[in-house]
Structures are given as structure tokens and as C-alpha cells.
Design goal:
The chain has twelve helices and eight strands. It is α/β, with parallel strands linked by helices. Helix 2 crosses helix 4, helix 4 packs parallel to helix 5 and helix 8 runs parallel beside helix 9. It is elongated, with a radius of gyration of 24 Å. Bound molecules: 3-methyl-2-oxobutanoic acid. 3-methyl-2-oxobutanoic acid (KIV) binds next to strand 6.
Length: 303
């Protein structure tokens, strides 16, 4: 971006009230759907926040849709904090949730609390999210005891991709459904303020949402959840490698970007860009003085 004569594009809008865990609870009580999207950078966070979203998740999907990894496993705490900080600078009202990356909370409860705290202290998040059910109950209890709100994540938990045998829908058998319901109840009891349900049968997600008093946020879990989340790069059509069945694409930014880049290359190669309006000028008077001071550069001579 040029640093010369910047033209502000911002339009002032009335400030919205900050969304908190209390807002989540009230929305569930009133049957008002909770909205959530992912973001990993400043301009996207700003646009999502301005649109009026309830919550922004700095998801470890970062690894796949931004960093180009095959799955979310290589994502580190440092990756997450770097992107979470950028998001926190762009969003003012949305509740900001930092996603705990693989191995940042599984080794010990102490490490889980320390890393959760880093999201709050170093990246200005309002809450954290972690994957898993009963096996994470102690971590959820300890993190919430430290005053940090925890969002759970059940169903398709991408950090267990190898254990699940791929990115597959979960909770499709009676036994698996029973376990999922129990996990949701255990997370609620451990103090989670909300739970993401990913790729689980719609009727199971609806039933869980009724059984527990904290809000469920669905992704590929049907309309019976208390809220919905999508990966922004899927929604915008920015991530081309694959599109999960449950995604609704609202734009096709990848092809829009390709089109813009092709036009730019063509404009430069055919010298249509930069045009006069993209050019900085100096007065003839200053130019003459410059030439007098530097005789070797005067018109007609090579600079
Ligand atoms: O990392 C992520 O983006 C997520 C959402 C899919 C819920 O966990």
C-alpha cells in the first residue's frame, strides 16, 4: 500500500455494544440465532465486525485456508497469536475467540491454562475454543476457573483427523450419538459457555441444543443449533481445494482475484497502468531547480 496521500475509505457508523458470553446466553434464551465466522487478518475482521456479526473465531482452520497445510495439525501457538492479534485490531464489537492449536492443551492442564491465558493477554481475545469432550473436562474446568470463557468443540474435531480416519461426519450411530450427548453435558458441567457441533446429524444437534442450557454453534449440524459458524474462506469462495457439503458459498472471490490479477498484469505489460491519475507530480519550478542542481540529469540526457 502506498504511504502517499492516503484516501480514507472508512464510513463512520454508530458503535455497537460489545458481544459477551452474556449476550450468547440471552440470545439462546430468546431463540435468537447467534452468528459466527472465522477471520485471520485485520481487514477481514473489520469487514465482518462492521457487518454486525456476534462472534469472530480465529480458527486453526488458518492452517488450511491461509497457510496451505493439508490439515490443522502443524499450526502453532505463535501462528495463532500472530493472526489473533491482527483480528483484534480489526474487530470492535464481536466477541473474539482464539482457537487452541494442536498440542497447546493436550499435554497437561497447566499448559492448557498457560496457553489459554496467552490468547487473552497477548492477543486480546475474549475467549478460547478447544476440541474434545470428557477427556478435556479437567482443562475446561481449570481454564474457566482462571476466568477465561471456554467454547467446546464436538463432532468432527479436525485435530483428531488421523484418529477419525479422515474428515468424516460423527455421531451417526446410536452409540456415537449417546457419547456425543454425554460429552456436551460434561462440557456444560465443566463450565464451557458454548459448544461448536461440527458435522453431526441435524436431529442429534437439535436434541443436544435442547438438552443443554449453553448455546450450540453448528457447522454442518443443521438448523436446530442455537447459532451457526462457517469458515469465511469457504463462504467467500476463496479456498479452492475443496468445499464441504455444508458450506453455502456467498461469493466467488478466488475467480474474482484471478481476474483482477490477470487484468493488472495485462495493464502493466501494455503500459495502461500506471495512468496519469496514479502518478505523483512535482512543479515545473522545482523540476527546473532540480535540473540546475544536477546538470547531468537535464532533459535529453540519460538519468
Ligand atoms: O478452526 C475453525 O475454523 C473451526 C470452525 C470450523 C468451527 O474450528
Amino acid at each position: 500500500m502506498s504511504t502517499v496521500s492516503p484516501v480514507s475509505n472508512s464510513t463512520s457508523q454508530p458503535a455497537r455494544k460489545k458481544v459477551t458470553t452474556l449476550t450468547f446466553r440471552q440470545k439462546k434464551e430468546h431463540g435468537a440465532p447467534i452468528t459466527m465466522l472465522t477471520a485471520y487478518d485485520y481487514p477481514t475482521a473489520m469487514a465482518i465486525d462492521k457487518a454486525g456479526i456476534d462472534s469472530i473465531l480465529v480458527g486453526d482452520s488458518l492452517g488450511m485456508v491461509v497457510l496451505g497445510y493439508e490439515n490443522t495439525l502443524p499450526v502453532t501457538m505463535e501462528d495463532m497469536l500472530h493472526h489473533a492479534r491482527a483480528v483484534s485490531r480489526g474487530a470492535k464489537s464481536a466477541m473474539l475467540i482464539g482457537d487452541m492449536p494442536f498440542m497447546s492443551y493436550q499435554i497437561s492442564v497447566e499448559e492448557a491454562v498457560r496457553n489459554a491465558g496467552r490468547f487473552i493477554q497477548e492477543a486480546f481475545m475474549d475467549a478460547i475454543k478447544l476440541e474434545g469432550g470428557r477427556e478435556r473436562a479437567d482443562a475446561v474446568r481449570a481454564i474457566t476457573s482462571a476466568g477465561i470463557p471456554v467454547m467446546g468443540h464436538l463432532g468432527l474435531t479436525p485435530q483428531s483427523v488421523h484418529q477419525m480416519g479422515g474428515f468424516r461426519a460423527q455421531g451417526k450411530t446410536a452409540i456415537a450419538a449417546k457419547r456425543l450427548l454425554e460429552d456436551a453435558q460434561i462440557l456444560e458441567e465443566a463450565g464451557a459457555f458454548s459448544i461448536v457441533l461440527e458435522s453431526v446429524p441435524a436431529r442429534l444437534a437439535q436434541m443436544i441444543s435442547k438438552k443443554i442450557s449453553i448455546p450450540t454453534i453448528g457447522i454442518g449440524a443443521g438448523a436446530g443449533c442455537d447459532g451457526q459458524v462457517l469458515v469465511t474462506h469457504d463462504l467467500l469462495g476463496l479456498f479452492e481445494r475443496f468445499t464441504p457439503k455444508f458450506v453455502k458459498k456467498y461469493a466467488n472471490f478466488h475467480s474474482e482475484m484471478s481476474k483482477a490479477f490477470t487484468e493488472y498484469i495485462d495493464d502493466v505489460e501494455t503500459k495502461r497502468f500506471p495512468a496519469q491519475e496514479h502518478t505523483v507530480e512535482m512543479t515545473d519550478e522545482e523540476w527546473s531547480t532540480f535540473e540546475r542542481l544536477n546538470p547531468s540529469t537535464s532533459s535529453g540526457q540519460a538519468v
